[in-house]
Design a protein that fits this description.
The complex is a heterodimer of chains A (about 170) and B (about 425). By secondary structure, chain A is of the alpha+beta class. Chain A contains seven helices and four strands, in the order H-H-H-H-E-H-H-E-E-E-H. Chain A has a four-stranded mixed beta sheet, with helices on one face. The radius of gyration of chain A is 18 Å and the shape is globular. Chain B has 19 helices and eleven strands. In chain B, helix 5 packs across helix 6. Chain B starts with 17 loop residues before the first helix and ends with a helix. The chains are: A alpha+beta (about 170), B alpha/beta (about 425). Chains A and B meet through helix 2, helix 4 and helix 5 of A and strand 3, strand 7, strand 11 and helix 15 of B. The structure holds 1,4-dihydronicotinamide adenine dinucleotide, flavin mononucleotide, iron/sulfur cluster (SF4) and FE2/S2 (inorganic) cluster (FES). The site of FE2/S2 (inorganic) cluster (FES) has 12 residues of chain A, from helix 5. Chain A: Keywords: 2Fe-2S, Iron, Iron-sulfur, Metal-binding, NAD, Translocase. Chain A: One of its GO terms (cellular component) is organelle membrane. Chain A: This is NAD(P)H-dependent oxidoreductase subunit E. Chain A: Its cofactor is [2Fe-2S] cluster.
């Protein structure tokens, strides 16, 4: 269970700035950007109470938020690891060896697609084309992409994460 | 060498920032446009022959002239930067490396259409590009190109970036508008077209990133000059994102007179196939368009050289031709398996179907299952006919063209590579290797 979500004053200012991008009375339009904020705040996923909180900020019904959060693939409605690897598996990436990369990560982390490691550090997701087909194989990692993946590159990304996690603790 | 209108300045250091962009002649089209009447700009765009670069190729000037203008009702311009068609990554390149070109085009287009608030709907995964665009917008504002009474023209304009959250269907314009309204991306029935009833019920023009960027050279050089580049109804330049088994994947700006063969094999573009392998097949316009075997790709059924333009790529219809689509050019070398590649596409469309229409929702899932069965060496001959049957039942029977987009690649794969499907059925143990 997560703690009830409350945004800081700075975040609430951001929420208001986002709502102001849309005409008066159309504050529901702000739902996607605000869910992105909530997911970031909530450790990479959205539980029911965070979604309810977003509904209250926008003055709409909770169901309107659930409907949206479950439709879009970037919102996680289940918990995920601290670091999420989202590896593309669509045609152009497949032609450049994405299947091998996925298999390599599965073996290396001893998890299957969609799973999280026991220490809660890594989640492996497979995703469909991310618009980086010319730089395949690739994955989304946080805010940016890691492209032209090789086994060596995967190793170094994993090491980078382990080092970061150790530094934070 | 092809003439470049969009990417000509991309190599200049600092072109991402306002100062260098402006020094290199950026934002001149805004100054020029403000001296023109909106109707005259629409005429220039019509003259240019520009066709929508999002994939459907609908004439942009005509779309703009269809925009309804009822008194007292706001109108909107929405830029489609959802770019999710497998094989397509051209808009990303443009936004990432020359973001002010899009902002400049947005200002001119907003002025022309009378849109005081315009949006860029960008796919959610392009998170860092959202920052790049927001930064460019802020720079444009600081320099007086956005906000109130821009350059004393009396025109007010704001541009906002709206980030999606992962759904291919939101690239379909009416699903995009639903998403912009804060709902699930479920396509609406057309007509009414967005030009009449768009976001929040107001008249709206939806245009692709590359289309809006192309407005800049059209205003700077004139519609007439733009229309002289290219051939026939394929005017101007086109961005092609090339990927798959080629030596130099990337984004290329071409004028539409070069041949497919030159595009694949010359060093100026894709640089040929790696490791001396042979060309097997190609999907020239993004995953939704028919795949072509090498012989039909390089020459039409009539034996003419096939060119990289709308008409030539479509020559032969769906039987022996394909489409320009979104310009996502996917090359397969001789070692690739068409069944396997098409399976990934079937899975993609199943994953992305919004679920509103049963032929699409059920049909895409069913196709994925049958493909998986064949790919895993468990297929029977009748499964190939079953696939053919399913795709035919989807095509034309759905609300939006995602259904067709799922059907066409399957139809073309079976039409041109039936022997490969049969090989899978006849050699089950080989498939599993
Ligand atoms: N760039 C990408 O990532 C992707 C592109 N596509 C492309 O999308 C295409 C299909 O797009 P659609 O929008 O469904 O095609 P469409 O032919 O229905 O419409 C094209 C454009 O013209 C406008 N239009 C057409 N008739 C009109 C009229 N009478 N009045 C006013 N406006 C009118 C539409 O509103 C739309 O903006 C496919 O051909 C495919 O190539 C598909 C998937 C992804
Ligand atoms: C399933 C589907 C996905 C689409 N995705 C995109 C897209 O990512 N980008 C885009 O510009 N157009 C996309 N389109 C086409 C749009 O509906 C629309 O035709 C286009 O944005 C109009 O702009 P244009 O006239 O400048 O091409 C898609 C269409 C369909 C059916
Ligand atoms: S064709 Fe598919 S994606 Fe399009 S509206 Fe129907 S179910 Fe949704
Ligand atoms: S297929 Fe992987 S990014 Fe496009």
């Amino acid at each position: 269970m997560k703690k009830t979500m409350i945004f800081s004053e700075e975040q609430l200012n951001k929420v208001n700035a986002i709502i102001n991008r849309y005409p008066e009375g159309k504050q529901k339009s702000a739902i996607l950007p605000i869910l992105h904020l909530a997911q970031q705040q909530g450790g990479g996923w959205l539980d029911v109470s965070s979604m309810d909180y977003v509904a209250s900020l926008l003055n709409i019904k909770p169901i309107e938020v659930y409907e949206v959060a479950t439709f879009y693939s970037m919102y996680n409605t289940k918990s995920v690891g601290k670091y999420v690897f989202e590896v593309c598996q669509t045609g152009p990436c497949m032609l450049n060896g994405s299947d091998d990369i996925i298999k390599y990560i599965e073996d290396k982390l001893s998890i299957k697609k969609g799973e999280t490691t026991a220490d809660g550090l890594f989640t492996l997701k497979v995703v469909e084309c991310l618009g980086a087909c010319g730089y395949a194989p690739m994955m989304q990692f946080g805010k940016t992409y890691r492209e032209h993946l090789t086994k060596e590159k995967v190793d170094s990304i994993i090491e980078e994460c382990i080092a970061k996690a150790a530094a934070n603790n | 060498m092809s003439k470049k209108l969009l990417l000509d300045k991309i190599g200049i250091e600092g072109i991402k920032g306002f100062e260098v962009y402006r020094r290199e002649g950026g934002y001149k089209s805004v100054e020029k446009a403000f001296k023109m009447q909106p109707n005259d700009i629409v005429e220039e765009v019509k003259k240019s022959g520009l066709r929508g670069r999002g994939g459907a190729g609908f004439p942009t000037g005509m779309k703009w002239s269809f925009l309804a203008k009822p008194e007292g009702v706001a109108r909107y311009l929405v830029c489609n930067a959802d770019e999710s068609e497998p094989g397509t990554f051209k808009d990303r390149y443009l936004m990432e490396f020359i973001p002010h070109l899009l902002i400049e085009g947005m200002i001119v287009s907003s002025y022309t259409l009378g849109s005081k608030i315009s949006y860029i709907y960008i796919r959610g995964e392009y998170d860092w590009i959202t920052d790049i665009l927001e930064n460019a917008i802020e720079e444009a504002r600081q320099n007086g190109f956005l906000g109130k009474n821009i350059l004393d023209s009396g025109f007010d304009c704001e541009i906002y970036v709206h980030r999606g959250a992962g759904a291919y269907i939101c690239g379909e314009e009416t699903a995009l508008l639903e998403s912009l309204e804060g709902k699930r991306g479920l396509p609406r029935i057309k007509p009414p077209f967005p030009a009449v009833k768009g976001v929040w019920g107001s008249p709206t023009v939806v245009n692709n990133v590359e289309t809006i960027a192309a407005i800049v050279p059209i205003i700077n050089e004139g519609g007439e000059a733009y229309s002289k580049i290219g051939v026939g109804r394929s005017t101007g330049t086109k961005l092609i994102s090339a990927c798959g088994n080629i030596n130099k994947p990337g984004v290329y700006e071409i004028d539409m007179t070069i041949s497919v063969e030159e595009f694949i094999f010359s060093d100026e573009y894709c640089g040929g196939i790696p490791n001396g392998k042979r060309l097997k097949a190609c999907i020239p316009g993004g995953s939704s368009v028919p795949i072509l075997p090498a012989n039909l790709l390089l020459k039409t059924a009539k034996g003419e050289t096939r060119l990289m333009n709308y008409e030539s790529l479509a020559d032969g219809g769906f039987v022996t031709g394909s489409m320009m689509g979104s310009g996502g050019f996917i090359v397969l070398d001789e070692d690739q398996c068409v069944v396997r590649h098409t399976l990934t596409l079937a899975r993609f469309y199943h994953h992305e179907s919004c679920g509103q229409c049963s032929p699409c929702r059920e049909g895409t899932g069913w196709m994925e299952k049958v493909f998986t069965k064949i790919e895993n060496g468990k297929g029977e001959m009748k499964d190939i006919d079953l696939l053919w049957d399913i795709q035919r039942k989807i095509e034309g029977n759905t609300i939006c063209p995602l259904g067709d987009a799922a059907a066409w690649p399957v139809a073309a794969a079976i039409r041109h590579f039936r022997d490969e499907f049969e090989w899978h059925v006849l050699n089950p143990e080989e498939c599993l290797k």
